[in-house]
Amino acid sequence: MKLSVSLGVIIGNRDIFPDQLVSEGRREVLQVLQEAGITPVIVDEDATKLGAVETYNEAKICADLFKRHRDEIDGILVVLPNFGDEKGVADTIKLSGLDVPILVQAYPDSLDQFNVERRRDAYCGKISVCNNLYQYGYDYTLTAQHTVFPTDESFKADLARFVGVCRVVRGLRNVRLGAVGARPHAFNTVRYSEKLLQAYGITVTTVDLSEILGKADSLADDDAKVTERWSSIHGYVPTRGVPGPRVMKMAKLAVVLDDWMTDNDLDATAIQCWSSLQKNYGVNACTWMSMMSDKFMPSACEVDITGVTAMYALQLASAQPSALVDWNNNYHNNPDKCVLFHCGNWAKTFFPDFEMSNAPILGTTLGVENTWGTVAGRVAAGPMSYARITTDDRNGVIRAYMGDGSFTDDPLDTFGSRAVVEVPGLQKLMHHVCKNGFEHHVAMTIGDSASILAEAFDTYMGWEIYHHEG
């Protein structure tokens, strides 16, 4: 997963305002981008007047530069050190042919500098630029403050959020997902529309579980790839008490899944977790899934393709691994707390310490000896974000909800991958989930990323969203 971002930068100008404002603004913005680790694509200072864009000819020059770097540019930053030329900005984007997120920033005026030498009027100019972007049919993102200096912490937060939006939009429009096996019979809840997903650039590749298990069974214990994966499993998670032959079966399964993902250039997977895997192969796939999620190639249970789409989006937003969980249990009588749980397959990043185990609940019907391979641990206290994507086939749309909460350190005596979370207004959220037919699975990650997903899904993907804010 590519975490670095390149932005096409348009410095707006209107030549009745002082040149020095443009030169100063250009230097400041480039310094801020450098500090943030963002690669700028911007016209040279001698390619146009002051390296800014005002005239149609300058728009063509900047657009040609953007065209040459179109495969690198993830978003566009519009900077207005003064009023700027509204047509110059919109024409540049139109001529470039880019379809990427756009952030519009405008400098504030200072009360002691309302003179001819330092007056900007960017407060007004930003409205005109946005008006033209709207007329041209472009979606765009605004800073929290209508005008703000690039060096202000508020803008740096806007920029960080925008970078996350760019990653989400770029990633979702090109993501390739693998569906391993059929949906478990008991899980109508994870049904989805491949056609709706494909309309937004989300591609699903399928494979029958029998093909995977057959290839895994045919591998020799001393196969080089198998021994390598055996070692990586033992290096990833403590396996004390786990029967060696079961770890060997996990290693072989992992090799086949790795090869299938590579052959099909896949970014994430959703796997038929039960009951075929346990009955016909004798292990859980959780350890491999945990390892893949920890490497930013998320994997979800029960062939929940829209669930793993939410996982992928969350990791793009947060630059942290994600996990798929159940909204599983109330927590005593606290209406804003609940227990998140899965057998489990959560990424190692979530746990201070964890170990390989089995799945006692599945074991009641499948035999505990056939469920080795889960990872068991408790998530540490800290901030968290959650999200869910669903295809609403009845209405032909994609819908999503997202929000922020926190992992807590409240007592919890149970097994599996687990966490106690606090979400302000949780009962309201649960009402929304149930009334709108969402699944019981939800994706989660560490940090505060809900606002990034809300902007990406609503403004740029055009999905129906509910951003829960308590």
Q: pLDDT average, as an integer? A: 97
Physical arrangement of strands within the biggest beta sheet = 10-11-16-15-14-17
What is the number of helical segments per DSSP (H or I, 4+ residues)? 15
What is the number of beta strands? 18
Q: In CATH's first tier, which class of the largest domain applies?
A: Alpha Beta
**CATH topology heading of the largest domain:** L-fucose Isomerase, Chain A, domain 3
Note poorly predicted spans. Answer: none
Q: Roughly how many Å is the radius of gyration?
A: 25 Å
Helix content: 25-40%
- How is the biggest beta sheet arranged? 6 strands, antiparallel, barrel
Binned strand content: 15-25%
The gross shape turns out to be elongated
Describe the structure.
The chain is an alpha/beta fold. The chain has two domains: 6-172, Rossmann fold; 188-468, L-fucose Isomerase, Chain A, domain 3 (Alpha-Beta Barrel). The chain is built from 15 helices and 18 strands. Helix 2 runs parallel beside helix 3 (86-96) and helix 7 crosses helix 9.
